[in-house]
Amino acid sequence: MIYARLSYNTLNWNQPSGPNGKSRNLGVHEFDFGFGFEEWLCSDQLILSNKDGLKYHYGYLEGIHKNFRANDEQHALTLFTINCATGQRFWVGVIKQWRAVDQNESLFIINQNPQLINTMRDSVVAATNNLAIAVNKFNQHVTNQNGFQLFNIKWQAIQFQFDINRPINRNNSVYNLLRFWLHRR
Q1: Quick check: helix, strand or coil at residue 93?
Q2: Assessment of whether the complete model's pTM goes beyond 0.70
Q3: 8-55 pLDDT per residue, tens
Q4: For residues 57 and 158, is the Cβ–Cβ distance under 8 A?
Q5: Is 183 helix (H, G, I), strand (E, B) or coil?
Q6: Cα–Cα distance for residue pair 144/183, rounded to 1 Å
Q7: For residue 140, which of 13, 119, 145, 156 is within the disulfide window of CB 3.0 to 4.6 Å?
């Protein structure tokens, strides 16, 4: 099993939700830029067709960018988040079958969906108080600058289970996972 942390989100990961619950530590992406690229993870707008016309749900996980290994795709991804204002951790969902997306496929999806990309950019503008820096970072991902991608994962089904009233028990080993990496267990 592989665990992946998501940016905290109060809009069920349909779009960036602003600073509430996000890290307050300098050097953490969601603090520095006011949003995380995972914040669109459950948006139905990201169910898109690839070059072959097959429909997938596209998204981004920082853990894939940071420390993806080829055999990771053989394992389910269990997603969790941390509300940094309260310190509570929550399960978000499970993606049982998924594939990493390479830069070429990410650019194809971006180029085929310019209106969607503009909508995503507008949602960054609406959610962040650090406008110029946030939009610049978003644009780096759109153009694959410096090895960043806007989309780096695709799947066909997610079991969404986020419940603000059911935090992860402190005795669970996931409670000690802090970084936005893929954590293999």
Answers
A1: strand
A2: yes
A3: 999 999 999 999 999 988 888 888 888 999 999 999 999 999 999 999
A4: yes
A5: strand
A6: 25
A7: 145
